[in-house]
Amino acid sequence: MMEWGRRNKRELVLMMHILLPLCVHWIAEEMTHSVLVDVTTTALCSGKSTCPEAIYINGLQQTIVGIFKMVVLPVLGQLSDDYGRKPLLLLTISTTIAPFTLLAINKSKPFVYAYYVLRTISFIISQGSIFCISAAYVADVLDDDKKTAGFSWMMGLFSASHVLGNVIARFLPGNYIFEVSIALLIFSPAYIILFLTETVTPAPKANQRLPLLRKVLKIVQQRYDSMKKAATVVMDSPTLKCITLVLFFYELGMSSIDTTLLYYLKAVFGFNKNQFSEILIVVGIGSIFSQLLVLPIISRFVGEKVVLCAALLSSTIYALLYGLAWAPWVPYLSAAFGVVNILVKPCTYAIISKASSSTDQGKTQGFIAGIQSISSLLSPLAMTPLTNLFLSKDAPFKCKGFSFVCASFSVAISFGIAWMLKPSPSTKTTEVGDSDVEAPLLT
């Protein structure tokens, strides 16, 4: 009993040391979210209600990020297995500081363009990878029967951070938002350096006296072998293969909504920073309740598959309502479905983790996130021009949110695939037999 109590206490401390800096980081990012729309549209399309240039730049950014994330995300996941979670978290979390520093200095058009360049680089490194590496860390420190609750708490605090960030953005003057955000963004990596405990023992290094060319070739070969192994692990598991398809179609629809939603609401209903914050607060408050209290309880009775299907169905309705919004109150109604939508990620993290061995947590999470990035690449190629077309006077018919209606069909496909999902039992730790694949990068 005493040993069980000590183990629980240790798990709680380890979870706190990962969740606190993540929470602060998410607050810092979210508090800039609503004001960025006003800053970018003012700089790029001053005096206009619609800003096609801003929508196209965001679509281009998402496309570029999607291209590079296909490679970067799996590699970062593999590196976290080889070198540890802590250095990779430090790298990914720190990349957000520079872009917001530019906007704190100046919000003119050249600085906004420079912000987009640095933010694109930041997204390539951090978008998705923070979740993947954090999910692998949670899987390291928790037993299988606690993983769903652990992922639920992580995503619940993500929602709580969104609420706090939007409350700050709602009441803090716009001139101070970026300065406060930068201070919080610096706090997170500092906390990780001081308090986060590494959960991975790096593989032993081989002879370091190899010629430089052979060393480089060996690094490339190891990354290729490791990525091939990750692909094999996913493809050999019916559960992982199915969940990959679910997340592909889900991300294909939802990423297009995330990219253009606030610009769409500003163009159609004239929403500003305060109304953006209110909508995001509605989503965040409900999401806290659903993830911290509802998911850990109901998943024990119905399983992750049922909760995942309910969340995907809710996401379909969410997208459809935004697309057909006929009055300013409809987006608030649609936002209410975010209470259930948010359960998609913790459920998929739990399903992926339980279907993967302990030595492959980072690889499988990273590989599947890399597949999701393909959706992030494809989505803006179709949805960005479609959104601009139906917001313009040249629309073939009257439905300003038609791109969101199309996105709802993609999410509906993911719901159909998830319905056929058969979650596999938890996978025990496998023996590490392939030393070349599991070795560190520099050998």
UniProtKB/TrEMBL annotation:
Q: Where in the cell is it found?
A: Membrane
InterPro entries cross-referenced by the UniProt entry: MFS (IPR011701), MFS_trans_sf (IPR036259), Tet-R_TetA/multi-R_MdtG-like (IPR001958)
CDD domains in the record, alphabetically?
A: MFS_SLC46_TetA_like
For this UniProt entry, what's an example GO CC term? membrane
Q: Which GO terms describe its molecular function?
A: transmembrane transporter activity
Q: Name one Pfam family in it.
A: MFS_1
| Principal cellular location given in the protein's record | membrane
Task: Specify whether Transport is a keyword of the entry.
Answer: yes
Top-level taxon in the UniProt lineage: Eukaryota
Bilayer topology term:
Multi-pass membrane protein
Keywords, A to Z, come to:
Membrane, Signal, Transmembrane, Transmembrane helix, Transport
Membrane-spanning residues = 88-105, 117-139, 151-169, 176-196, 279-299, 306-326, 364-382, 402-421
Task: Tell me where the signal peptide lies.
Answer: 1-26
Residue runs in coiled coils:
none
Name the family the entry cites.
Belongs to the major facilitator superfamily. Phosphate:H(+) symporter (TC 2.A.1.9) family.
PANTHER family in the cross-refs:
MAJOR FACILITATOR SUPERFAMILY DOMAIN-CONTAINING PROTEIN 10 (PTHR23504), OS11G0151500 PROTEIN (PTHR23504:SF108)
Protein name as annotated? OLC1v1026330C1
What species is given as this protein's source?
A: Oldenlandia corymbosa var. corymbosa
